[in-house]
Amino acid sequence: MTHTHSDGETAREYLDSLRRGDLSALLLHAQIDIGVTGSGYEAQMVVVVRAPQPFAEALSKLPEHDRKRIAEAVLSKRTYDAYTATDIIVKVVGDPIDGPTTLLPDLIIHREMMIAVATGQQQIQEVDDYYSARQFRLTEGCAAAGIKYENPHASLWDWYNFWKARGMDTYADRRNYVRTLFAGPVASAVGRVHNPSPVNEREPTGWERVDRSLGKAKAQFLAASTEEEWQTVGLLGREVLISLGQAVYDRDVHWETDEDGKKIGSTDARRQLFAWLHHQMSGGDNKEIRAHIKASIDLAVHLQHRRTATRQLAALCLEATSSAVSVVAIIAGRPV
């Protein structure tokens, strides 16, 4: 068999265009090779995906149609080839990966194990120990990552008794139930693969609404996988800045109107912060500090109106908002 190396970015872009961020994320740590076996009419294209555990196991457990989609994605720009591939060969390479980034492959392995025992492909007694241990890890890991995971089946025997009691007589009924159960957690876990730690954790400011809103923005980023969800990070960033403006602005101390003479409203975070900022850090020596906070505010406002929001823009917005909060807290003399 002859081999050529493939750029995994091409496959991920193709899968992302199909809104299959789950499959794209599984390839993030993978090495991909393309080969041809046989010759003439017997020639066949082979796609070999090498990945560390548990990503390799998740790839190998994917249903046939998902494995075929990955093969198509790898070959999507090779229009000059006369052959196609309908499956992938998965190989384990490197040291296993651990931490929050493994939530996605573990969820997929867990999902496929539930389907396998419910469709007669595996015996419960052969895999229940692995399922129970993984269920415990997923329950704790998803809770820590802010991912909503509501699988009530502590063991595969629980799952067996459930489908019997509910009258799920067909394999299709059981598959649909499991796929619906895992749809939300899998989508949320995609973000953890791309960026398990999107922003540096900072100490709470002590402004309750500011800290609470910033926590919501971080949780939204970790769960987001679509343009609308990334755009919501900008909306939540704006809420953080509104709360920040209300925390520091005092109408009796700072200006009631902005530089153009317009009255500063109760939810006008931008003008509130600018008024406070010019009062606290006035003069040319402090212009860079003022510019930093103004740019953070502008970025958050820009993202909430950006219908083509991306994960990168959402991460930048979240980091900029967090930074603005920290800078304001330092100026205000809060503990940081």
Architecture overview:
With 336 residues, the protein is an alpha+beta fold. It has 3 domains: 2-97, GMP Synthetase, Chain A, domain 3 (2-Layer Sandwich); 101-194; 208-332. It is 58% helix and 7% strand. The protein is built from 13 helices and 4 strands. The protein has a 4-stranded mixed β-sheet with strand order 1-2-3-4. The longest helix has 24 residues, at 171-194. The radius of gyration is 25 Å and the shape is elongated. The model has no long low-confidence stretch (mean pLDDT 83).
**Unreliable sequence segments:** none
State the total count of DSSP E strands: 4
Strand order of the largest sheet: 1-2-3-4
Order of helices and strands: EHHEEHHEHHHHHHHHH
* Average residue-wise pLDDT: 83
Number of helices: 13
- Calculate the terminal CA-CA distance, rounded to whole Å: 60 Å
Morphology: elongated
Count of spatially separate domains: 3
Largest sheet: 4 strands, mixed
Secondary-structure content class: alpha+beta
- Helix coverage percent: 55-70%
Strand fraction equals 5-15%
Keywords: Plasmid
Protein name: Nucleotidyltransferase
What attributes characterize this protein structure?
13 helices; 58% helix; GMP Synthetase, Chain A, domain 3; 3 domains; elongated; alpha+beta; 336 residues; Nucleotidyltransferase; single chain
